[in-house]
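Quick one: structure tokens for this chain, please?
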Amino acid sequence: MKTEEILALLIKESPEGIFELQQEDDPVSIIVPKEILYEVLILLRDHELLYFDMLSCLTGIDNGPELNTMELIYNLYSIPFEMPLMIKTRIDRLEGLAPSVSVIWRTADWHEREIYDLLGIRFDGHPDMRRILLPSDWEGHPLRKDAPLQERYHGIKVAY
């Protein structure tokens, strides 16, 4: 099934959603509104024509204070149909909140914690939303475009 056909199915199943196809991505991606992201991802996992049973990767991007948005990118794969799919959603940079998908795909647990740790995006419903890479007392989120460089940590100079 092609991404365009998946998009048509999403429009049919979620008519309230305003979806966008990004042809320049590889694989071609579908932008899903954050408000219906969780329901769309459940549909992609459970629909008998799709069955995206694997979350290969989940990552976040800070688009900077100028655009005031961040993006989450879900790389899905349907093992039985040998089909990849990329789903993107945009979130408000100041709100920094998205639904957790760790109950849909268990592998999202650590991906979401890493995104929280490095970008500060919180995942509503996550079972253990705490830092995973940096120490628990680290200040800020280093992959945010406006993050100040931390010069010292516990009196030790942090070299960049």
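The mean pLDDT is 93.
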